[in-house]
Design brief:
Number of domains: 1
Strand content: 25-35%
Radius of gyration: 23 Å
CATH class: Alpha Beta
Largest sheet: 7 strands, mixed
Strand order of the largest sheet: 5-15-10-6-9-8-7
Number of helices: 6
Order of helices and strands: HEEEEHHEHEHEEEEEHEEEE
CATH architecture: Alpha-Beta Complex
Helix content: 25-40%
C-alpha cells in the first residue's frame, strides 16, 4: 500500500508540473508577443475578427463650405467558434513495466504538452500566413521584405504607439543572417528574438511558409479562452491552477491494462483586425 501511495503522489506532482509548464510557457509567449487582452468566454461562443473599411470624402472643399466627414469603420470579416481541444494518450502495462510508472506516464504527458502547444500556435499561424483580408505586400528579397513590412505596419498603425511583431520561417531568417552570431530564446516551443532588425519581437516558426513573412502589432493580438475550472474540473478530477487554462487527469483502465492521460483546454490566439496583418511575399526574387 505504501508503494501505491508514493506512486499516486508522484503522479499528482507530474500533473501539477504539466500545468505549470504549459502555463509558464504560454505566459512567456504572451509577454514576448505583448498580448495583454485575455477574454474569458464560454465554449460555443464566437470570436469576431474584423477588417477596416475606410470611406474617404473628397478633400477639395470650396471656401466656406462644410467639410465632409471621412469614415473609418470596423466590419465583421469572420467568426471563429471557441471549442474544446481534447487529447488523450494511454500507457500500456508493458510500457509501465519496462520504463517504470512515473517515467512512462511522464513521457506521455510531454507529448500531450507539445500537442496542446501546437493547437494554439497553428490557429494563429494559419491566419497570419494564409488568412484572407490581410494587407498584401510583395518584395524582391528578404531585406526588402523586412523594410516593406515595417513601412506598411507604420502606415497601418500610424497614430498608435504599437509594438511590432514579425513572424518568419527560420530557414529564411538564418539564411539571411549567414554566419552572424545571435542568441535566440525559446518559449512555448517557439524561437524568438527581441529588438532586432527594427522589430520589437521576431518569432521563428516552420508554420510560416518559406518566402513569406507576416507582421502585425502586439496590440492587434488577443486571447480568448474557457477556464477549465469549477464543476467541469470536479467532474473529471482535473488538475489545474487558478487560471484554468488547461486541465489534466490520469485514469487507470482495467479493460485493457493501461493508464490514460487526458487534457482539456479551450483557447484561441487571434488577430482582432485582419488588415492589421502585413503578409509579405518575397518568394519571387528578382
Amino acid at each position: 500500500m505504501a508503494e501505491n501511495i508514493t506512486v499516486q503522489t508522484d503522479l499528482k506532482a507530474q500533473s501539477i508540473d504539466f500545468v505549470n509548464q504549459f502555463n509558464t510557457g504560454l505566459k512567456t509567449l504572451l509577454e514576448v508577443l505583448g498580448v495583454v487582452r485575455k477574454q474569458p468566454l464560454t465554449v460555443g461562443n464566437q470570436i469576431k475578427i474584423y477588417k477596416s473599411d475606410v470611406t474617404m470624402a473628397d478633400g477639395k472643399v470650396a471656401e466656406g463650405e462644410v467639410i465632409p466627414l471621412s469614415k473609418v469603420t470596423k466590419k465583421l470579416d469572420r467568426q471563429i467558434n471557441l471549442e474544446f481541444n481534447k487529447h488523450r494518450k494511454e500507457v500500456t502495462a508493458e510500457a509501465i513495466q519496462a520504463a517504470g510508472f512515473s517515467s512512462a506516464v511522464g513521457d506521455t504527458d510531454a507529448k500531450l504538452l507539445q500537442q496542446n502547444q501546437k493547437d494554439i500556435k497553428k490557429d494563429l499561424f494559419d491566419i497570419l500566413a494564409n488568412g484572407d483580408g490581410a494587407t498584401k505586400v510583395t518584395a524582391n528579397n528578404f531585406q526588402m521584405a523586412i523594410a516593406l513590412s515595417l513601412a506598411n505596419l507604420a502606415i497601418k498603425f500610424e497614430d498608435e504607439d504599437v509594438q511590432s511583431v514579425l513572424f518568419v520561417n527560420p530557414i529564411d531568417f538564418y539564411t539571411y543572417l549567414g554566419g552572424k552570431d545571435i542568441q535566440a530564446q525559446t518559449a512555448f516551443g517557439l524561437q524568438y528574438l527581441q529588438n532586432y532588425l527594427g522589430f520589437n519581437t521576431i518569432i521563428m516558426s516552420g508554420n510560416i511558409p518559406q518566402g513569406k513573412m507576416a507582421t502585425t502589432a502586439s496590440q492587434n493580438l488577443n486571447v480568448a479562452y474557457t477556464p477549465v475550472t469549477g464543476q467541469l474540473s470536479q467532474a473529471f478530477s482535473f488538475t489545474t491552477d487558478a487560471t484554468g487554462l488547461i486541465g489534466i487527469t490520469h485514469t487507470p483502465k482495467t479493460d485493457n491494462a493501461s493508464y490514460d492521460t487526458m487534457t482539456l483546454s479551450a483557447m484561441k490566439l487571434f488577430p482582432e483586425v485582419l488588415d492589421g496583418i502585413i503578409q509579405t511575399d518575397f518568394s519571387k526574387k528578382a
